[in-house]
């Protein structure tokens, strides 16, 4: 019995396998229908070769008849058939049979007019195609050519050959020739065009969708190039190609070549991957909004893909500098990733919870500063919230579900702000910076101006009219470092034995040597002072309108000359004019990329941004005002008194009449406010501090900014970190 059961099971399995195989065969056969897609030409004399395209042709023996007269089959494949129009045939219906099935191909007319071949069979508007055939000569009117029903211009004609230009927007379709009332239809012309590409920007690895017409059905038959650089075609569909931007691509037109015919489309612009500056908040519930600040985002929202713990978020709004994102459900805890046109960048970790910090106002200050923390999930009972500044508990003054008003603790240090409620903890998107304005000394003269800071934190400041340089130690002790008060001249020497002129510029090198631009009775000069106080003359005999001074990373000095601009002085003493415009004695700056920043008129709220590498000049500022934003619309007060680059290569702008320190991000062209002070004399947090005048700026190795404040006879410093 057991053996019988085994035989029965085996038999059933064999039957099932047979059924499955039969189903597979039926399925395979079903995808290759017996059908005709096109045929050409539809007219001609006996012996004319007629091509028929379609599928299922090789399934059985092919036979063709022209209005009942059998025709000779010259070649057969599964998709193409070539036959000869039979002798003694008559105009009428062409019938095709494969032995078991038959179908109608179309009508064939016996006449002398016949369109037999076109070349090339594909191309764009403006392509000239050669039409071969017979009977093109006309005795009554000019021959007429249509492509997909649209009239084409005939360039040249003979009895057996025509040359015609493909019209705009022709589309794909048959080539038709009309002569003396006769009509002949030839093979289809494949019209090619690129209507759009998306995205228009990106970099290596960006998937670019090319929309258009006339693409080849096989990926390898479409040659896609990005400004001449060949790319891989990853996907083909009707009216669409998807290509991967190749390594080493440059900005320029995208082109597709099919059968040797090139279609040129829109330009693809290479842009760097995005970078992130701020992601806020770092925790919160689904449905809340997240702000992502940075640069090189796409302004087209769907070209920015944001995921949190691999869960995709909706990008609600997009600018080049900011993305506004709606937090998705099911995020949990994980990394924020931003990909702009397939160029990814990794962000911070985010936690899905009901507690989150969106922002702090202000985000810097000293002990005792009132700070408003905005977010979600706070308790309205202050005692149920705990706020810490870099680990130190702060006093909570007031609480709502979305805001906490707190007082910074006495032993405040720079670091993250955290809010704890029950078991949940939220961290601020940026650390709170212990920052403020402090007076290093107020024992200076009334004519202090340019200043520099060495690696030990000593400040060297010029007394412009009294011809000497003071040294201020980190403890605030003041002494004369070089020159003698009210002794004007050009005499080398050590310390107070040297003689200096009116000092308009100071700059340091990496070894703490000080370079000085000055004017005396003998004209302008450039001097060098070692850390030991030894003064030597580098270049003398300059005009008496020599002004400010700066230095580039190669060791070249740059000085202003009022009516002749900016001169570069090489270490060998040779100089050249690099900015032939008016330039005031106000401190100039030069970036690591050789971007030069010059104040042209000290009574105007403007300055020049000259890119020496490509000779591009930008005028920054216009009328008197106070406005952040792009350089095209930013406004400054009546005087810009100093320009200085910080360690991140942002330009710091001393906006004297607004009592503000402004910042220009060179990578984005955006002007923002770094510090806004009030008029007067008061130390403390930046929201309360006061200053008399920002005459010049210097920055130390830690990023602390030093200011000469002649109205208060003081050296002030702004701590931002």
TrEMBL record:
InterPro entries linked: 6-blade_b-propeller_TolB-like, Fibrocystin, Ig-like_fold, Ig_E-set, IPT_dom
Native source organism of the sequence: Chitinophaga eiseniae
Keyword Cell inner membrane recorded: no
Protein name: IPT/TIG domain-containing protein
Pfam family, one: TIG
Highest taxon, organism lineage: Bacteria
Keywords in alphabetical order: Signal
Keyword match Cell wall biogenesis/degradation: no
Residues of the IPT/TIG domain: 33-111, 112-192, 354-441
């Amino acid at each position: 019995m057991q053996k019988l059961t085994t035989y029965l099971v085996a038999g059933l399995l064999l039957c099932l396998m047979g059924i499955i195989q039969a189903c597979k065969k039926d399925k395979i056969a079903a995808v290759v229908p017996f059908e005709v897609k096109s045929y050409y030409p539809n007219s001609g004399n006996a012996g004319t070769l007629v091509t028929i395209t379609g599928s299922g042709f090789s399934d059985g023996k092919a036979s063709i008849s022209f209005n009942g007269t059998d025709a000779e089959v010259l070649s057969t494949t599964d998709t193409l058939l070539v036959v000869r129009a039979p002798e003694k045939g008559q105009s009428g219906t062409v019938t095709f049979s494969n032995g078991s099935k038959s179908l109608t191909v179309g009508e064939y007319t016996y006449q002398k007019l016949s369109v037999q071949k076109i070349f090339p069979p594909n191309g764009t508007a403006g392509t000239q195609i050669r039409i071969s055939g017979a009977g093109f000569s006309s005795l009554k009117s000019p021959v007429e050519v249509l492509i997909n029903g649209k009239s084409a211009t005939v360039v040249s004609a003979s009895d057996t050959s025509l040359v015609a230009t493909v019209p705009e927007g022709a589309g794909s379709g048959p080539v038709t020739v009309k002569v003396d009332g006769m009509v002949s239809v030839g093979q289809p012309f494949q019209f090619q065009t690129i209507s759009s590409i998306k995205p228009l920007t990106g970099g290596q690895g960006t998937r670019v969708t090319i929309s258009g017409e006339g693409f080849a059905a096989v990926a390898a038959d479409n040659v896609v190039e990005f400004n001449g650089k060949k790319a891989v075609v990853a996907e083909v569909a009707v009216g669409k190609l998807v290509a991967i931007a190749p390594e080493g691509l440059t900005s320029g037109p995208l082109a597709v070549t099919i059968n040797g015919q090139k279609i040129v489309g829109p330009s693809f612009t290479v842009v760097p991957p995005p970078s992130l500056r701020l992601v806020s908040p770092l925790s919160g519930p689904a449905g809340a909004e997240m702000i992502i600040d940075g640069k090189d985002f796409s302004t087209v929202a769907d070209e920015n893909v944001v995921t949190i713990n691999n869960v995709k978020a909706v990008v609600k709004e997009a600018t080049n500098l900011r993305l506004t994102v709606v937090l998705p459900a099911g995020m949990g805890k994980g990394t924020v990733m931003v990909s702009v046109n397939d160029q990814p960048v990794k962000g911070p970790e985010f936690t899905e919870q009901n507690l989150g910090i969106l922002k702090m106002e202000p985000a810097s200050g000293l002990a005792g500063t009132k700070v408003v923390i905005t977010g979600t999930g706070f308790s309205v009972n202050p005692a149920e919230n705990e706020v810490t500044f870099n680990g130190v508990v702060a006093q909570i003054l007031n609480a709502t579900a979305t805001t906490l008003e707190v007082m910074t603790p006495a032993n405040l240090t720079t670091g993250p702000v955290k809010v704890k409620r029950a078991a949940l903890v939220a961290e601020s998107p940026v650390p709170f910076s212990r920052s403020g304005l402090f007076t290093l000394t107020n024992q200076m003269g009334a004519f202090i101006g340019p200043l520099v800071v060495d690696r030990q934190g000593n400040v060297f400041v010029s007394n412009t009219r009294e011809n000497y340089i003071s040294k201020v130690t980190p403890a605030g002790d003041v002494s004369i470092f070089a020159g003698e008060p009210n002794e004007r001249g050009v005499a080398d020497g050590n310390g107070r034995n040297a003689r200096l002129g009116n000092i308009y510029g100071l700059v340091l090198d990496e070894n703490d040597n000080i370079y000085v631009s000055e004017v005396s009775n003998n004209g302008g000069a450039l001097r060098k002072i070692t850390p030991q106080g030894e003064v030597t003359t580098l270049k003398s005999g300059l005009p008496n309108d020599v002004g400010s001074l700066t230095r580039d990373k190669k060791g070249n000095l740059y000085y202003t000359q009022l009516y002749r601009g900016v001169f570069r002085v090489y270490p060998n003493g040779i100089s050249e004019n690099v900015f032939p415009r008016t330039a005031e004695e106000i401190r100039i700056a030069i970036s690591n990329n050789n971007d030069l920043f010059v104040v042209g008129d000290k009574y105007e709220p403007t300055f020049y941004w000259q890119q020496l590498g490509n000779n591009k000049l930008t005028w920054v500022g216009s009328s008197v005002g106070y406005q952040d934003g792009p350089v095209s619309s930013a406004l400054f007060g009546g005087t810009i008194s100093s320009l200085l680059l910080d360690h991140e290569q942002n330009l710091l702008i001393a906006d004297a009449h607004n009592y503000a320190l402004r910042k220009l991000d060179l990578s984005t062209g955006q002007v923002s406010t770094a510090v806004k002070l009030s008029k007067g004399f008061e130390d403390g947090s930046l929201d309360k501090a006061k200053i008399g005048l920002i005459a010049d700026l210097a920055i130390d190795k830690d990023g602390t900014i030093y200011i000469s404040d002649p109205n208060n006879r003081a050296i002030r410093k702004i701590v931002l970190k």
